[in-house]
Write a structure and sequence with these properties.
With about 110 residues, the protein is mostly helical. About 80% of the residues lie in helices and about 0% in strands.
Length: about 110
């Protein structure tokens, strides 16, 4: 694929790939390789008119945001667990520590929403 796309600008290459993915998901493409080659030719000649690329790109960006939010929440939870562990008395219960961290997480989430 990279060879076929040649010297297309990186953003145009991504748009072509997004369009191909969207068209394949929509169905009805009988010859995927020919379809892909025709999109590249259109892009090279300046007549490329994507129909699906925006939707595919928006979905990818939404997934990136979801993953970033999940990573942020994981980091917050890890920090809470670490803080709870520091405040445990010797021989304290890990279960109590985790329950306390979960409770604080739920309380914070309910105030954010």
């Amino acid at each position: 694929m990279a060879t076929l796309m040649g010297r297309l600008a990186p953003d145009l290459k991504q748009q072509v790939l997004d369009e191909w993915q969207g068209a394949m998901q929509a169905g009805g493409i009988r010859y995927p390789a020919k379809f892909f080659a025709s999109m590249i030719n259109d892009a090279k000649s300046g007549v490329f008119m994507p129909e699906h690329a925006r939707r595919v790109s928006a979905g990818r960006e939404a997934r990136k945001k979801q993953l970033a939010e999940m990573a942020r929440r994981d980091a917050v939870f890890s920090a809470q667990v670490a803080e709870s562990a520091r405040s445990l008395p010797p021989g304290g219960s890990i279960k109590a520590m985790l329950n306390g961290a979960m409770k604080r997480t739920k309380e914070r989430q309910s105030t954010v929403q």
